[in-house]
Amino acid sequence: MKCPMLTMYAATSKRPEEYEDRDCLENDCAWWDKHSAKCTVLLVSQNLQLLLSAIVTGVTKMPHEGQFRK
Asked: Reduced to 3 states, what is the DSSP secondary structure of residue 2?
């Protein structure tokens, strides 16, 4: 099943909450997650964003090569 929201998100840089004329099918949509009551596409996006921020935090805290040399 195609999500009518996906093409709308891809065309602009707006967040889903910023749309006034949202046409989400919710329970009738194949992408709807009943447990979290959110669109699965949005959940995947949020989880990827959390992973990216964790990776960036790890990279910034990683010691430099010459830091422990005498």
From this structure: coil
3-class DSSP state of 1: coil
Burial of residue 24 (number of CB atoms within 10 Å: 0-12, 13-18, 19+): middle
pTM value? 0.57
DSSP element (H, E) containing 4: helix 4-11
pLDDT digits (tens, 9 = 90+) for 36-68: 888 887 888 889 999 999 999 998 888 887 777
Residue by residue, DSSP assigns 12-63 as S---GGG-SS----GGGSTTEETTTTEEHHHHHHHHHHHHHHHHHHHHHHSP
- Containing 6, the helix (H) or strand (E) segment is helix 4-11
